[in-house]
Amino acid sequence: MPIIVNLDVMLARRKVRSKELAEAIGITESNLSLLKSGRVKGVRFATLAAICRYLNCTPGDLLDYDPSDDDLRGEEGG
Fold first, then answer.
1. Does residue 57 fall inside a structural domain?
2. Is 28 a domain residue?
3. Residue 33 to residue 28: CA distance in whole angstroms
4. Are 5 and 19 in contact, with CB atoms under 8 Å apart?
């Protein structure tokens, strides 16, 4: 996946635990863990906004893009 989630880095920079963030924004710790690991297919803008608000950051601080040949084919592989 060409999208890289840097949420764990931002949590460390802000010295915030996953449990604290999950409680503050109203999602489960397991869903936050899935997001941190990049094992999700999407994230709601409202959730992203809540994370950014709580951590005082921007979406660009949390998400990165690494272009690859796989990205050019799309999800259908064609």
1. yes
2. yes
3. 9
4. no
3-state secondary structure the chain: CCEEECHHHHHHHHCCCHHHHHHHHCCCHHHHHHHHHCCCCCCCHHHHHHHHHHHCCCHHHHEEECCCHHHHHCCCCC
Q: What is the CATH number of the domain that holds 11?
A: 1.10.260.40
pLDDT at 76 over 80: no
Which token pair is 29? 């710790």
Q: Whole domain around residue 52: which residue ranges?
A: 3-69
> Which is it for the CA torsion 69, 71, 41, 53, positive or negative?
positive
The predicted model gives 17-21 an average pLDDT of: 97
- 14 domain-assigned: yes
